[in-house]
Sequence to fold (344 residues):
Amino acid sequence: MTILVTGGAGFIGANFVYMELKEHPEDRIVCIDKLTYAGNLETLKEAMEYPNFRFKRMDICDREKVFALFEEEKPDIVVNFAAESHVDRSIEDPEIFLKTNILGTQVMMDASRKYGVKRYHQVSTDEVYGDLPLDRPDLFFTEETPLKTSSPYSSSKAGADLLVNAYHRTFGLPTTISRCSNNYGPYQFPEKLIPLMIANALADKPLPVYGEGLNVRDWLYVEDHCKAIDLIIRQGKVGEVYNIGGHNEMKNIDIVKLICEALDKPESLITHVEDRKGHDMRYAIDPAKIHGELGWLPETMFKDGIKKTIQWYLDNKEWWERIISGEYQSYFASMYGERLKDAE
Ligand code: NAD
Ligand code: DAU
Fold:
């Protein structure tokens, strides 16, 4: 079977690529990625060694190239991770979020229709449900919770979800959608809360906490998210939405304090800064459906996952230091050199 993975040079996509190569050596993985600032080909260095892995640099909005790739590869399954994913950037400049996250999804689905893929999977987010109040710990997002977005990022993801459902109903495209809570783990770009705080703490730099730091996120180890997607694409029901989360709610400030403690850094590094505009208060997923229908349960407890993650950032300093310095962006040219034509 050929699985086309978009956005595989990013955080979750790369973890998914590695999991598939390990768990399903019988499948071929074709990965496309535009290599935006968030895509890092170095992350896929080991994947390139696998004979059943192919990388091609491509924008999911580039209809001509995407269709040519489908013609050549005839993928059985498409998993669309590619997106602009950072809420703060969407507040600064929404346009690229609408282009990539909505129009890019349309291109991927048009190609999936034309070439008759058996499954088109859209990787979405719990942010499409908006937020929950802090004083109602009894409330959770279910698949029936209405979409009610706060940021240009979450609105673009919700727009894409509506389009996916429309392609299923109108054209019969065999789709599934997953909506996951906040991920953490190896290869996360150091602009997101956990890797940013680890990198800053190690450099004894201020740790910028938005507002009071009382906002709650529902953290899930990235491998558990990838396992859930794998189950959905192989056993999930066409036309369905699956929420993914592990009932692990934590306040931002507690996460930052935990990182200080683990790295033996003083809490005096914590600096409260102006709050994010429209900042969602609390996310909390009810994962009953995916548990009941597909038997999925998270395997990594937060206390173990965060230890593993901190250790990974300690062991792979070069990876994130090259990102912070901007050096990683020249990797593509140096890696491909003569072979640039095939990759582009
Ligand atoms: P990321 O920003 O780390 O990676 C995104 C990848 O997509 C990058 O490699 C980037 O180069 C690529 N990309 C961006 N625009 C592209 C385009 N036009 N064409 C091709 N490739 C393009 O993001 P992530 O955290 O790995 O998130 C992956 C997906 O999962 C996103 O769709 C996101 O909305 C969703 N998601 C993320 C989280 C989380 O906590 N990080 C949680 C739930 C859902
Ligand atoms: O819930 C899933 C979503 O989780 C994904 O769809 C997004 O792609 C992903 O980026 C993430 O969104 P968040 O906005 O929750 O993640 P972020 O790491 O940016 O922020 C987590 C919390 O920490 C949030 O309440 C804002 C806060 N924060 C973040 C940064 C970067 C800070 O207090 N300081 C910071 O410097």
Observations:
- The CA atoms of residues 90 and 149 lie 13 Å apart.
